[in-house]
């Protein structure tokens, strides 16, 4: 039986982070409807009621998991300005994305399921806009690099942003759902921009 309250020797923030981590795994594996607060609590070693102390509802827990997961992923793949060409920036983004998928598979699993969850649960539709905002920041930065370097200066920034979004997200979803990368696909995408 789980102990009441947070585990001994941990503070409130550590417990909250452990809940988010366990919830990410649960949501990524079972989806929102199939996820169980009891299972999440068991994996953290607390009573289910303790989760509601930190997150008043399963919906609020899902939203917090999204916010943390999305920020971690997009902050790690958004170019920081060191790349001088779109080819270099795209190569870095795809390399970072591969590494994240290897190191943090539940993050990719969780984010890949968001569009489906938002369609089934309209209360999460605003998360799709937040997802788009993260994408816009990343892909617009890539577009600016490509236009400035002359690699795609024949496109407007909006056109370049949408082209890059289509290429990167298509690559991501194919790689994610196949559970492996199509040999040479990343090189093809970066060479042919």
Strand fraction band?
Answer: under 5%
Distance between the termini: 56 Å
Ranges where pLDDT stays below 50 over 5 or more residues in a row are none
Form type: elongated
Residues in helices, as a percent range? over 70%
Number of strands: 0
Q: Total number of helical segments?
A: 9
User: How would a crystallographer describe the biggest sheet?
Assistant: none
The computed structural class is mainly alpha
TL;DR?
The chain is an all-alpha fold. The protein has helices spanning about 10-35, 35-45, 50-55, 60-75, 85-105, 105-120, 125-150, 155-180, 185-190.
Can you tell me about this structure?
By secondary structure, the chain is mainly alpha-helical. It has helices at 12-34, 37-44, 48-54, 58-77, 86-103, 105-120, 125-148, 157-178, 185-191. It has 2 domains: 1-56, Arc Repressor Mutant, subunit A (Orthogonal Bundle), CATH 1.10.10.60; 65-191. The relative contact order is 0.11.
């Amino acid at each position: 039986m789980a102990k009441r309250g947070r585990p001994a020797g941990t503070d409130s923030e550590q417990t909250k982070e452990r809940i988010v981590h366990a919830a990410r795994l649960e949501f990524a594996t079972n989806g929102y409807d199939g996820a169980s607060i009891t299972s999440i609590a068991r994996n953290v070693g607390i009573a289910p009621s303790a989760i509601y102390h930190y997150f008043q509802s399963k919906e609020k827990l899902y939203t917090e998991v999204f916010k943390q997961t999305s920020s971690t992923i997009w902050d790690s793949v958004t170019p920081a300005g060191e790349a001088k060409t779109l080819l270099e920036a795209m190569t870095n983004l795809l390399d970072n994305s591969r590494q994240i998928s290897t190191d943090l598979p539940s993050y990719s699993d969780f984010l890949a399921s968001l569009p489906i969850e938002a369609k089934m649960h309209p209360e999460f539709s605003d998360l799709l806009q937040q997802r788009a905002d993260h994408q816009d920041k990343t892909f617009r930065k890539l577009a600016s690099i490509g236009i400035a370097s002359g690699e795609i200066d024949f496109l407007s920034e909006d056109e370049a942003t949408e082209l890059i979004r289509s290429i990167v997200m298509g690559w991501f979803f194919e790689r994610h759902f196949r559970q492996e990368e199509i040999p040479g696909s990343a090189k093809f995408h970066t060479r042919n921009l």
